[in-house]
Every structure is written in C-alpha cells, then in structure tokens.
Amino acid sequence: MDEVKRKKVLYISYDGMTDPLGQSQVLPYLTGLSQKGIQYTLISFEKSERFQKEKEIIGSICKEYGINWIPLPYTKKPPVLSTIKDIRNLKRTVKTLHKQNNFDIVHCRSYIPALAGVWMQKKWGIKFIFDMRGFWADERVDGGLWNLKNPVFNFVYKYFKKRERLFLSKADYVISLTQNAKKNIHGRTDILNQPIPIQVIPCCVDLSLFEPQNINLSNQNRLKADLSIPGGVKVICYIGSIGTWYLLTEMLAFFKRYLQKFPDSIFLFVTKDAPQKILGEAKHVGIAETSIRIRPAARKEVPLFISICDFSIFFIKPAFSKKASSPTKQGEIMAMGKPVVCNSDVGDTDYVVQKYQSGIVVDQFSDEAYDNSIEQFSQQSFNSVLIRKGAEDFYSLEKGLKSYWVVYKSVLGEA
Hints:
The protein is an alpha/beta fold. It has 2 domains: about 5-200 and about 395-410, Glycogen Phosphorylase B (Rossmann fold); about 210-395, Rossmann fold (3-Layer(aba) Sandwich). The protein contains 17 helices and 13 strands. The longest helix is centred in the first third of the chain and has 21 residues, at about 80-100. The radius of gyration is 22 Å and the shape is globular. The model has no long low-confidence stretch (mean pLDDT about 95).
C-alpha cells in the first residue's frame, strides 16, 4: 500500500475501546492505517467500570501509534434519553475538535456516530464514511430490545430507518460487513445515487494471536486436566457471550442429539456469562451437568481453549437484520484450524463454510436436521491447514486494511 500525504481523520465509535469489540474490531484497523499516513482522532464512548480497568492499556496503544483518543462517558439509563444525552455530548465535542484539527474525513462506526458524521458533512463539507456494521435499527427490533408496540420505540425505529436512508444516500463511501447486505442495499429504491459505493469488509481476525503453531501440547493437557476433561472424549465449544442473538436452547438441543452418538462428549462454554443460565437451560433440555464445562477466559487465552476442541458451534437467531452480520468468532475459530457447526441465513456464514469447507451448516432447528448434520459431520474429514488458509484469505487483518485503504484513497480523490 503506497502512502498518501498525511490526512486528518475523525473516527467515531459508540463502542468503547475498553470493550472487547473495540480492542478486536477497531484498534487493529486504526493502528494499521495510522502507519500509512492517516492521523487519527478517535472518539469512543466508554463504560465506567471497564474504562477504569483498561484505560491505561488503551491509552498507551493510542499514544504509540499517534492516535489522539478522546474517551467520552457512555450513559445507559434511562433508555432513549440517555442516548440523546450522548449524541449532544458528541456533537459538542466534534465541533470543538474540528475547529482545532480541520478534519478531511469523518469515519463513523454505526448509526449513532453517523448522526454526527452526516451533520459534519453538511455543515463543513467533510468527507463522510458510513461504516454501518449492520442494519442497527432492525437489530434492535429483531433482538427484542425495541418493542414496536411501544409508541416511543416505534417512533425511534422509524426515525433511525429514515436516518439510515439519509446515511446511505449521502455517504461518500459505505462499509458493509457482508455481501448479503450489500446486495440488499443495492436493490433498494429508497436510496439516492444508486448504486452507491460499498466496500465489503468482514470482521477481521488477529491471525498472529489465533495461531495454532503457538499452542503446545503440555498447555493443552494442563487445560484439559484443569477442566476435568478425560483424554479421548469429543469436545464441542462455544466461544463468547450468550446474549440477544445466540440461541442457547437450540445449541444445547443439538448437543443432546450429539450425546446419543458420542455419549462421553463435553460441551465447553468459554464465556464470562453467569454459569447458572447455561446450567439451568441444560437441565431443562435434559443434559447432565457433568457434560457441561463453563470457564471465563481473557482474550489471549481463547486460542488455547479453541485448540482443545473438536469443533465449535454457534447458532444465531435468523432475522432480516442478520443479513448484515459477520460473527467475529467464525474467523477466529477458522484461524485455529477448527471446523464450525452453524445455522443458515446469517450474513455470509453459509458462503464461507461452503467455500472453505470449514464446517457444516444446519438448515433448520429440529432433531432430524441435527441428526443429519451430526452424521454428515462424523463422516467428513476436515483439513485444519486448509481451514486456516480460508481464514487467512477471507478474514485477515491485512486484507481488511487494504480494503479500508482503497476506500480512503477513493474518498480523498487519490485512487
């Protein structure tokens, strides 16, 4: 990537840099691009407890790469009003910063930051990149966070769908996580200036962290002993939080069918969520607690946990908004050379599994579909080297940086 003369970019994220997402999906891009001649000012909204724990670490990373980090407090309550408060704080901050820096680009990660971005574009003529991440307003509805029967949430939903059309119509460039979402956007007649410029960049993976060659057998054996996992048994793992989108009951139902074929198997949950929820649902489904293991892990420990598993599973609630979803865990699991079992109709997950022969796609949530998938899985041999190469091809940070660089040069008229 050839360098352009140093340009000033304001990057706005409503996710905190002290959040795991900020550390895995924002900072790696900014540190990489800052070395290519981009001078970043970074605004993020930080949750108080995490900020106190992680601020020194994030601050030192930003300082090392010349990133001017402006952390703002994230407010959660009361709903809607707290977000309005954050938006007002953001606009005041942005106005002051622009007077000091005269930014060339405002790069907005998702919808709340884009409210400030499109305002800056109109007010000062700044180039506006809408890094949309997903259909955010629809995610809130599909995930049950906004009940449209509530007149307040109904109003907020309609407001953001109207803003979404504005963001997509006005953006100098749009970033989408999936080809599925890009196709949907280009098919919409309510967006001006079609076909709008869209670059697809999935959630990338730190391949140096998720590297099978960094794992040694003694550490694997030690972890298995610590988890009371006997040698020779099948281990399925789930990585990450069990939240709005991940279908715990259905994943456990799959495992119950798996136990019929492999009775000694273990389902390992690598999560910081409370064990009671998982164990309670396992009991409800009819799975003995002895078949479940639950353990929190720091990010740097996750590759070791994945390495002791035969495969990883994630079922995500299929909904319209999930067309734009790129599960970070899929790339991380593939980077460790492990196959996945996942469901269909979520972003580009089907495409990735099929293209790189990296797992099995379950097409419906039923015992029959689970049995068919388990049989298919047990008969198929997966090549860990090829799965790893698939992650390198599709999810590599370097490839993501090159794609972002294409966008920046185009927006700056230097392509």
